[in-house]
Amino acid sequence: MFDATLKDRKQSFDSAPGTTMFLHWLVGMVYVFYFASFILLLREVLRPGVLWFLRNLNDPDFNPVQEMIHLPIYRHLRRFILSVVVFGSIVLLMLWLPIRIIKLLFPNFLPYNVMLYSDAPVSELSLELLLLQVVLPALLEQGHTRQWLKRLVHAWTFTTGYMLDLHSYLLGDHEDDDDDNPNNNPPDRHNNRFPGLGEGLHAAHQAILQQGGPIGFQAYHRPVDFSLKIVLLVIFMCVTLLLASLLCLILPVFAGRWLMSFWMGSAMVHELYTAASGLYICWLSIRAATVVLSWMPQGRTIILTKVHEWSLMILKTLVVAVLLAGVIPLLLGLLFELVIVAPLRVQLDQTPLFYPWQDWALGVLHAKIIAAITLMGPQWWLKTVIEQVYANGIRNIDLHFILRGLAAPVICVLLLSLSVPYTISIGITPLLGVTPEMQTLVERRIYPLLMMVVILLAVLFFQIRQFKRLYEHIKNDKYLVGQRLVNYERKNGRRMSTSSHSSPS
């Protein structure tokens, strides 16, 4: 997929073993996470009991730490081998085989353009973290995207179930909830001792162990040639996963390359940018199509009114996105570059090079982290503004409130943090008659120095406030009775009383 040979992988591991292992671990964790998320979505669609061989992570009785302690080693080894077989088979089915098919059908489409060796600091790490922490969560956390995927899975299950006569096995018999008819479950009439004995081996085991009906299991109708139909179902599922993988590997990258060609021309662009752009194009296209189809029955006038409202809303959203997702992350990433990256990586006799794209990518990550910390912190104006903007949403977006309450203060603080040290080092330092070496030292070290001063002042003010709270707590605990201070006089009051007693004498 990336045209990397074993020699390239060995060279990459020899040059940076820690980074290589971390990236492989990160990709594997993301793969396992989204696989588990898809399994949870399948449990919402399928009949309870279909996925009995997979653990339910939402089960309140599921305690992996307790199982890790109590179960024997061979059970853990068996589960580990089963997980490796399942995950490895899916990787071969959804990555290795589609890549071979793409190379056979579209020889010029692969490999993906990935700059494995770049002079830009933290280039690959920032781009991959940007994709994993910003792009994918922004797409997958959308309620519409999850509902689309759920409906698509339900439609595929419904169609396949009726084609193979497995509708009862996959989705259940919702219309036969009551058991008034004695012919509903004739095989189970003589199994009153162990409920679930005629509902499959796993259900019977669960019923015996729990001495009752199996938890999370629903009866189904067993058709003729059940084993053969299950094999056909697995084959259809593998073919569907293969086609879906081909579509996901080709369509977003193709759409992103087509979009980037209008801007970058024939230049090679990192495929993370093209894939992210393509994902957003596909998502916006599907969303626009569904919205227009929902407007069609309302008439032409309503459609024109809705288009005007949505055009105005999209224009406001673009202005907000340029400021909050463009200007603020760029300034934040540039400040991080000047404060931390440049002093650590560049010597005083060298000239630092700045990469706006990398600074913006790092700034997006830092802005997300700062926003999360702000929302978890105490109540202050920035948290209130962010919560208000989130509560309003896109449809009720207030451009004036966002510009005045959020964008303008943050941009002013970042611009002051960038311009004040630059003005001091470039404008004031030469007037003092220092040497060129000292001027270079001031230019390169003034940003971390001022940042340390600001941090020390913040820590000092925080400690002073904490000592004041401690002093008030001790004072109230010692002298406060109800709502009144007793046996307590301030120093000024004591001095005045002393002077008044001494003046007549």
From TrEMBL:
GO cellular component: endoplasmic reticulum membrane
Record-annotated E3 ubiquitin-protein ligase MARCHF6-like C-terminal domain positions: 303-475
Organism: Gymnodraco acuticeps (Antarctic dragonfish)
Protein name stated in the entry: RING-type E3 ubiquitin transferase
Keyword match Membrane: yes
Protein origin, superkingdom: Eukaryota
GO biological process terms on file: ERAD pathway
An example Gene Ontology molecular-function term: ubiquitin protein ligase activity
Transmembrane helix among keywords: yes
Main location as per UniProt: membrane
Bilayer topology: Multi-pass membrane protein
Subcellular localization(s) per the UniProt record: Membrane
Transmembrane stretches, start-end: 22-42, 80-102, 122-140, 230-255, 275-296, 317-340, 360-381, 401-426, 446-464
EC number: 2.3.2.27
Enzyme class, broadest EC rank: transferase
Keyword annotations of the record: Membrane, Transferase, Transmembrane, Transmembrane helix, Ubl conjugation pathway
Catalyzed reactions per annotation: S-ubiquitinyl-[E2 ubiquitin-conjugating enzyme]-L-cysteine + [acceptor protein]-L-lysine = [E2 ubiquitin-conjugating enzyme]-L-cysteine + N(6)-ubiquitinyl-[acceptor protein]-L-lysine
Pathways involved: Protein modification; protein ubiquitination
InterPro entries on file: MARCHF6-like_C
